[in-house]
Amino acid sequence: MTSVLFQLGGVTEEDEKTESTVDQDVQVVRKWLQTQSHLPEVMENIKIRNFLTLNKCSIEKTKQKIDMYYTIRSVTPEVYEKTNPKLPHMQLLMDTIYCCVHPKLVQGLYRVYFIKAKKPNTFTLSAFGMHCLNIYEVRLHEDRLKGDIIVFDMSTFTFADLAGLNPVLLAKQAVSFEKVYSMRVKQIYIVNGPSYVAQLLALLKAVVNPKIFNRIEVCRDESVLKNLMPRDDLPKDYGGDGPSLEELNEMVRQKLAQYQDRFDQLDKLKVDENLRPEKLDNDEVLGFHGNFKKLNVD
Questions:
Q1: Looking at residue 59, what DSSP letter applies?
Q2: Hey, is 245 helix, strand or coil?
Q3: CA atoms within 13 A on the CB side of 115
Q4: Residue 172 in contact with residue 75, Cβ under 8 Å?
Q5: How far is Cα of residue 100 from the mean position of the Cα atoms in its chain?
Q6: Which residues, other chains included, contact 220 with Cβ-Cβ below 8 Å and sequence gap of 6+?
Q7: 3-state SS assignment for residue 181
Q8: What is the DSSP letter of 273?
Q9: Is the N or the C terminus of the chain less surrounded, counting Cβ atoms within 10 Å?
């Protein structure tokens, strides 16, 4: 098992075209950040670079996403508060659910997530969303954010787990990810889909961007994963020779611990809205408009 959680792929033709200007773009964004007195810090260059990648090197979109990276923590406190991985409920999450990334990229571009409850009736949506945010925080520092492939194994996901999902919270989590990280999802595989998967799809359709929803593929078993990555990399849980989900999960736990100082710092970072040039309307920023309370996924 590799000790490097985020192995990076080779340089693509697109990378070569943008590399000559990306350093200049980073400096442009950095200088802009230094003028934004309402923001609590000037972001590191590596994170600015990743935001540029997420936004296809659009400087204006990058500015908007970086501002939202800080602002959204107070706009949706129920999504962002108590996310520190050292807290007991976050440690419990890592003990009961596999939510991990594979060290090797697929096609040299895409990071693969594996999500699976270790035992039935243990899925907690709020902590799960927080854990995903924590992984993304580390990826901003170490990874190259070209896109993600998500594997959601429902073999241990029960109807009680589904019934316990809060559609309002799920919608806020989805919008938050999109507003900050642009949700560059290449594909979502729901493997070992149970008979009630239709109810889950109805819920996701109500809260997820249609473009992302159309990239969901429901599979009755896990055989599709054998075409996703080489046998040497595929986790042992799915018939491969790669690291097991337990090993990958532990690698994520250790990586989060390495960034404990950063997570402690995030707990204290606040946007000073009194210094913002133009006042924000929280509902307008997120596009909520009160619609989440009307979700119906029966």
A1: H
A2: helix
A3: 22
A4: no
A5: 11
A6: 192, 193
A7: helix
A8: G
A9: C
CA distance 99 to 246: 10
Do strands 216-218 and 111-117 pair parallel, antiparallel, or not at all (unpaired)? Answer: unpaired
Angle, alpha carbons 21-43-284 (nearest 5°)? 95
Secondary structure letter of residue 117 according to DSSP: E
Q: Which residue has the tokens 């980073």?
A: 26
Mean pLDDT by 10 residues, the chain (298 residues): 70 60 93 97 96 93 95 89 94 96 92 95 91 95 93 94 88 88 92 93 91 95 95 96 97 96 95 89 56 40
Region of residue 243 (phi > 0: left; psi between -120 and 50: alpha; otherwise: beta): beta
Distance CA 155, CA 194 (A): 7
Side chain identity at residue 138, one-letter code: V
Distance, in Å, from the CA atom of 265 to the CA atom of 41, rounded to the nearest integer, reads 11
Under a CB-based contact definition with an 8 Å cutoff, are residues 221 and 227 in contact? no
CA distances from 202 to 134, 175, 197, 234, 242 (A): 27, 17, 9, 30, 34
Torsion of the alpha carbons at 99, 104, 108 and 112, rounded to the nearest 10: -10
Which position has the token pair 């802009």? 32
Can you tell me the distance from the alpha carbon of 24 to that of 40, in angstroms, rounded to the nearest whole number? 23
Q: Is 119 exposed, middle or buried (0-12, 13-18, 19+ CB in 10 A)?
A: exposed
Helices 125-142 and 167-181 pack at an angle, to 10 degrees, of: 10
Sequence-separated (6 or more) residues with CB below 8 Å from residue 42:
30, 33, 34
CA–CA distance, 183 with 201 (Å, rounded to integer): 18
The model carries a pTM of: 0.90
Q: What is the DSSP letter of 56?
A: T
How far is C-alpha 119 from the chain's CA centre?
A: 23
